[in-house]
Write a structure and sequence with these properties.
It is a single chain. By secondary structure, the protein is an alpha+beta fold. Strands 9, 10, 11, 12, 13, 14, 15, 16 and 17 form a 9-stranded antiparallel sheet that branches. Strands 3-2-1-4 form a 4-stranded parallel sheet, sandwiched between helices. The protein starts with a strand and ends with a helix. Helices cover 31% and strands 28% of the residues. Helix 1 (10-21) packs across helix 10 and helix 3 runs antiparallel to helix 4.
Length: 360
């Protein structure tokens, strides 16, 4: 099976490795000089929406997928006339606009914080009155890893927030004083079969995921999160892996956002689950049966951001796995991650603490 992948970052790299293990090949489109995915297959060095590059990709692929959310939907729709494209472009269209995303959650009865569209300073002032402060002002499109956001902590911050983000479609979201954050990751194939991984708890810093732990030992929360996931997958007629980020507040779950792709919070599944998110994504988009998502041990992941310290490689052992994406160091850039697996949650957390002392 020949798979075309739009994007050649670390997610593409890991998809390519999973595809190779399953007997498939990947070709990538990415304009970068040395994208991480070049280690996993040939790269067409063109813009993501370059018509000639996409025509070449369609000609040489049996199915096409993508590894990030800023792919032009129009380009995917054009490709879909020639070759299957998964996840479906309609899901990506919704995920690219925070307002559309919130409205979908509301339609599917997936609990979420209060929100309001903001197109003017007057709208923002009204949102502050309606939702209260603090609140979070976000761009509706193209925000990720904390970018395109402003936390309004008092009414005195409203003008500064508007000066920084105004002039583009925005959304105001009620500030959530959550207990902790979790993500639920699921996969669906064209036959409608669904698998869901154990719930993952996540810790962020400056808007970037720092650490993940799985499984969250709470069957009730997992059941509720799985119900949300099943509603999304069925409604979107989804094929591939999808991630849903949630806030836990007093035993309740509030949806934050969903990502129509393999996700950073699921990197632990490579070593920590019976089948990784990357392998099941490949199986799903190629129309094959999905495989077990059980987590036999306790797993954790630490993102390596900005640099990979020299001491990181010395940590590697039977329970510690280093993934170096081969990217040039840069502040705030995800350069790799370390996964740990252990027989108990306490042993896992001890390993994570040791790693964090070395790499942060």
């Amino acid at each position: 099976m020949r798979i075309g992948v739009i994007g050649g970052g670390q997610l593409g790299q890991m998809l390519g490795a999973a595809a190779g293990a399953l007997g498939a090949t990947c070709t990538f489109v990415d304009p970068s000089d040395t994208p991480p995915a070049s280690s996993a297959g040939p790269v067409i060095k063109k813009a993501f929406d370059d018509p000639y590059a996409l025509a070449e990709l369609a000609r040489d692929s049996d199915v096409i997928t993508y590894e990030f959310e800023n792919v032009p939907v129009a380009a995917l729709l054009d490709l879909a006339e020639r070759v299957p494209v998964y996840p479906p472009p309609g899901a990506l269209r919704i995920a690219q606009d925070r307002l559309s995303e919130k409205e979908l959650f509301k339609e599917l009865d997936i609990a979420l914080p209060g929100y309001q569209a903001v197109d003017s300073l007057e709208d923002l002032q009204a949102a502050a009155t309606k939702l209260g402060v603090p609140l979070v002002l976000k761009t509706r499109r193209f925000g990720y890893d904390g970018k395109g956001q402003f936390v309004i902590r008092s009414v005195d911050d409203i003008s500064a927030a508007w000066d920084e983000l105004g002039g583009q479609p925005l959304i105001a979201e009620a500030f959530v004083d959550f207990d902790y954050e979790v993500s639920v990751i699921g996969a669906r194939n064209p036959a409608g079969d669904v698998v869901i991984w154990p719930l993952t708890s996540n810790e962020h810093g400056q808007g970037i995921l720092r650490t993940s732990r799985a499984p969250v030992a709470d069957d009730e929360l997992l059941a509720r999160a799985s119900a949300f996931m099943n509603r999304l997958l069925a409604h979107l007629d989804y094929v591939g892996v999808l991630s849903l980020e949630l806030f836990v507040v007093d035993r309740s779950l509030l949806a934050n956002e969903f990502a129509p792709r393999v996700h950073n919070s699921g990197h632990w599944t490579i070593e920590g689950a019976a089948t990784s998110q990357f392998s099941n994504h490949i199986l799903a988009i190629t129309g094959q049966p999905l495989r077990s998502t059980t987590c036999p041990d306790f797993a954790g992941m630490v993102n390596l951001i900005g640099q990979i310290p020299e001491g990181a490689s010395a940590l590697v052992g039977p329970r510690v796995f280093l993934h170096d994406y081969g990217k040039a160091p840069r502040p705030g850039r995800k350069l790799g991650h370390i996964t740990v697996v252990a027989g108990t949650a306490a042993d896992r957390d001890a390993l994570l603490l040791e790693i964090q002392k070395t790499v942060t």
